[in-house]
Amino acid sequence: MWLYTLKRLLQGVITVWFIATATFFGMHSVPGDPLSGERATNEVIRANLEARYGLDRPVTEQYFIFMGNMLRGDFGISYTQQNREVNDIIREHFPVSATLGLLAVLFAAAGGILFGALTALYRNRLPDYIIMFLVILGISVPSFVFAALGQLSLVNVNNVLGFSILPVAGWGTVGHMLLPALVLGLGTMAYMTRLMRSSMLEVMSADYIRTAKAKGLSPTRIFARHQLRNAVMPVITVLGPAIAAITTGGFVVELVFAIPGLGRYFVQAVQQLDYTVIMGTTVFYGAFLVFMVIMVDLVYSWIDPRVRLQ
Amino acid sequence: MSALLSVDNLHVQFATYGGIVQAVRGISFSVNAGETLAIVGESGCGKSVTMQAVMGLIPMPPGKITAGTAHLRGEPFLGRSHLNGKAICGDEIGMIFQDPMSSLNPTMRIGDQIAETLEVHRGYSRSEAFARAIELLELVRIPEAAKRARQYPFEFSGGMLQRAMIAMAVACKPSVLIADEPTTALDVTIQAQILDLLKDIQRETGMAIILITHDLAVVARMADKVAVMYAGQVVEYANVDDLFAKSSHPYTLGLKLAMPSKESDETHTLQPIPGSPPDLFSPPKGCAYCARCPFAMQVCQREDPPAFTIASDHRSRCWLQHPQQSRPVSGLYRRTDEVTA
User: Among residues 255-274 of chain B, which lie with CB inside 8 Å of chain A?
Assistant: First the structure.
């Protein structure tokens, strides 16, 4: 088990290195640089600035400098924001995205497993049809539509009640998190519902469920102790990528709800070719994704004993 | 003395897209304590469906029990989950299945799976039940039972899994054990061990065994009584000696001829039964075996034969057993005149 963990971690480090390298050279191959703006910069000033930031050196040399700094945990200073270290940006804004993302995944997983199991148990009956219709809706409607609709309904509810049950936008309290997290998790919830449904249907017709029935166990016990654990496997597999995707992909929802998350900086940096911020956020997000996948694999082997010995 | 478990005129059908399958068409049998009843027949003849219907394991819908009764110690229990405060499934009747590899929960420890039955039916605490599970594993002769109880099914071999299944099924000391082809997925030496184990447990506890199989060698080794099934009906019902020595149905004869024997002389060649079983979407009007029967007569196509009594406790569904039928058929045993119907 320890060897397995170690192996996975090593693989993860290699993956992150690969992400960093690919991003670095990809980024430098884009025409322009952080210094090219709308107005032309004086040649002399430009040369001075390039020398100041080391942009005049060959790209490979820049790469090794960057790698050296990265290993020391230093991503440098933003080119476009005054006196801000990339590490500060991440430190300040990532926890916001992560909190929102984790809460969203929690909604998604809980809802997905619950609704998926329900649809399987009520297969081809009314609850199944209703939930599966909503699932199609959840998968096909983009999150900003849900975000706007969610805000609108919340405003109406608050108006009717005469007081505010939940804030419509902003950040700070648990109340601020609920609606955006729900909106952010809807798509994944829909996807997980489908996954759970098919997996549950497979488990329900398994031989060992027949054995459990022959043992005289109640349907509730069979569901809780025999079906759920076996059916939840595929859902857990997608949990890692889902956490990463939701945490990093919440940009639009963060914008609609005026949440100070990291996503905004990520997108801005790409638009402005802010090299250090691009590298910092990409490598950080990449490492986060890899770490989540590894975590899920470890949890998976804890739930399914068959994976442990391989 | 009334039988421990009896099933009368059981009919089961399944609604499918292709129509209604009449899987079981009027089955009757009974078994006494300490006795072994073998139910024999080829794939799809309704052996497993019959026993699963008795246990209430058939998914309804699509399945449906359209007629028939089942009694345990004289009391009807079909469609009930409990009888006199005891659960039918797992408590009064234990059941083991064909493929032990897929019949055990892959993510649960063997010991927990055995203990579960005791927790549910006997109200044991978790640790009590687990301790008892280890004893049961010892009973079914699994070495290092305490260690094995903490392992998962994928760490067991097929034969050991079947032993664990037996331990699970007999945990609550059931009065009847239904074994649905318990040795089909195992190799021959393991088969013998499993069958011996079943016999030993039966001797100790006095439970009745209903053994579903398609293997006549297993029947000869294990059974006291035999029900030969064909196309959802019992075509011949007899004690084991009479079934082999006084076979009274052409299908039983056919099965015997298709069975390999120890004498490998040239006179004994295996003879397969030609053709295939009838379509149970629309069972034939007459005898279901008619199309494959070498002795078929005109009446066989027109009318389904009733169960003729050959001797007490020996019945055959064949028109050749009609008292007024005297066509000579080699190898077929006929009712002698001394016995009255």
Answer: none
